[in-house]
Amino acid sequence: MDPASDSLFARLKATCAEDWAAYVDHGFVRQLADGSLPDACFRHYLAQDYLFLMHFSRAYALAVFKSERLEDMRQAAATLDALLNSEMSLHVAYCARWGLDEGQMAAVPEAEQNMAYTRFVLERGLSGDLLDLLAALAPCVVGYGEIGARLIEAPAARLDGNPYKDWIEVYGGAEYQEVAQGAVDQLDRVARQRIGEDPAASGRWQSLCTTFRSATRLEIGFWDMGLNPPD
Amino acid sequence: MDPASDSLFARLKATCAEDWAAYVDHGFVRQLADGSLPDACFRHYLAQDYLFLMHFSRAYALAVFKSERLEDMRQAAATLDALLNSEMSLHVAYCARWGLDEGQMAAVPEAEQNMAYTRFVLERGLSGDLLDLLAALAPCVVGYGEIGARLIEAPAARLDGNPYKDWIEVYGGAEYQEVAQGAVDQLDRVARQRIGEDPAASGRWQSLCTTFRSATRLEIGFWDMGLNPPD
Amino acid sequence: MDPASDSLFARLKATCAEDWAAYVDHGFVRQLADGSLPDACFRHYLAQDYLFLMHFSRAYALAVFKSERLEDMRQAAATLDALLNSEMSLHVAYCARWGLDEGQMAAVPEAEQNMAYTRFVLERGLSGDLLDLLAALAPCVVGYGEIGARLIEAPAARLDGNPYKDWIEVYGGAEYQEVAQGAVDQLDRVARQRIGEDPAASGRWQSLCTTFRSATRLEIGFWDMGLNPPD
Amino acid sequence: MDPASDSLFARLKATCAEDWAAYVDHGFVRQLADGSLPDACFRHYLAQDYLFLMHFSRAYALAVFKSERLEDMRQAAATLDALLNSEMSLHVAYCARWGLDEGQMAAVPEAEQNMAYTRFVLERGLSGDLLDLLAALAPCVVGYGEIGARLIEAPAARLDGNPYKDWIEVYGGAEYQEVAQGAVDQLDRVARQRIGEDPAASGRWQSLCTTFRSATRLEIGFWDMGLNPPD
Hints:
The structure is a homotetramer.
Chain A: H1 8-14, H2 17-24, H3 27-33, H4 39-66, H5 70-97, H6 102-107, H7 112-127, H8 130-153, H9 165-172, H10 174-194, H11 205-227
């Protein structure tokens, strides 16, 4: 996906281009793309992602609570429902194919990078307003869309026989691309509500950039974690 | 509905029996039952209830955020979804038949009793834990079930030609009775998680009773409000 | 006190001039000014104000939590300290002279108008950001300064022999006027941080006005409550 | 300091004895004790600790907000005041002697381990109740007391000429020992309020243990961070 260059998302991304590149073009992502990622890394990532999804669901619930308009409540509630009732179930089914059952995943100790990221997002949402929360969520939601789109557009050869083909097809697929675009649009809409037409000219621009960049760096930390499974 | 007498709900109710009776057997309820409630009162109630449902949806979103277990997250998210996506739509459709459109309702100034109740519940949930939040929500969720069951069991004559028949059938109907029972069960389950087998013997019993009684009194205030529509 | 007319506070006040007048020139205030307020009303007000101060202290604690800058944290913490450690003690000492002891006040049932106001402020602070919280706090903090200044500038005759002279001198006095001015300044400073130079041109102006007006109306409700002591 | 063995603190500590030992007897602590810690490590620790203190202040503000009793509000507010108005100033003065000025420290990027720890504590406090928050704060507040007491009781030889003598004397000193004991007592008092006489027999014992152990592990991560200053 390729958000309009004047979207708030695109402008935030441009303020931390180097970090963003390090996230979407991370070694973990490259090894997913060419299928060379060790099994143990992917399984470690999947197990931590299960815990991550629980906390991300909580973050969307928080977004419902923090919404001032019914439209925003409903969009956040739809994401919450998708996370809790489809994505987590799909995740569990998918993980089963990688030899991980739900009980195991729920019992895995939460990695520090996972805690750092999820708690940062939740706390940002609680101490700030809905816009701060959405800015903290965007690198994940929209970034996975960008990663998926990139990988799926890569030469088809890489998908054939790639053990991570399914993963790539989920995030690169039309359904997820729509979710990511919805998040871009909501960020613009809520920015208009909470600041006005030109967020970058406002007093809180630096604060939003810091939130967005922090979340991007925490995504990098999450991939780093994936590359370092426990023995 | 008639929760088991050793449920936490039944025990909380027993500590404020007089307030509870004043709520479930309020003049507003009696006039609903015999159809004598003035139109203006019911319309005032409906318009305020629209705003109430928005804040109650937010309270269930908060319950998702505050849950420690996936099971509790899912139950609260299901209620949130029901509120935002069916109950509010039904409410809007129902109100249309009483001459109220959604734009009007969203623009109605929130009555003080409405603010007192909804903000009390939300704030209790934020300052306390999930159990405090559920104790603040219970008088509404379970109380409407009790009121509905009472009215529907009253002589059928009262339903025939009663302009409030639909309202009574919703809350007295099997579907809503199940929702109310689900709330009773969740209160017990979360009490076991957060206190143990005997909540009434615990140090926070008084605090839970105060929360429950306050919410019950705020329900009384809500009916009082209904009987006093603005000119 | 008379905040600069281009302060955010003055601009918010101007958007709800009628409500503001009904608050600062309320019957309760007039009767305080000429000393005609019945004892029972003042005692009822004092007892509820004790509970109010506890929740207002909590709101300032929340402002510390929600601050992004050390300067804002320190200003809110200073107010919290003043409320918890001087104002509440002064209040208790003052109330003792009116025949109310602290145990009695802590045991008084919280009036609905009190709950509506305090929980509205706390919840607004939790669902919004620091600026929303400060906008909800301003009508109380700054309004009492305006009321005190008005009453103290009224003909001195009204103070002689007025049983409410002390109350008037506290809020009209230099020390409290400084507190009120500090709140006006902080509102401007945080608005620059969170919106920019022209809050009234921003997308959230309506939301801030609604918060400010709601709090003003809840102040009116608090005075109404004072005039209606329980039997 | 040596909390009574039946205090909640002592019981929580006993459930994660191995993690606790790894925290209070960490390499960083040993090198502080014998003065062998490299300057660069200590400066890195100090700069991160400045940011840590800001978020810990916010956590105590949250404890004020979440308190149900005036006594608890006042104890948390006193800690907040001590942190914001003495400890941070002392920290700044102390850091100046190590060549770090406040502007530098405020501009240092927050280390991931720092974010993980502070946001975990804040989020735990927001999603849980006051007891959950205090359980998340205890390993830091009380643990530093234990570390200080251990180091100060070590042979005096280690203090003479030890560049970290001041640090050891602060946390081992009578004043800090009292703060730590106050935290132990408050944990017991709030546990009685929120659970009852026997927290370990309650349904939430596992949840409290998990919170306490997670915070202990995050303290270990903080020391690890200290030993790995950026180049």
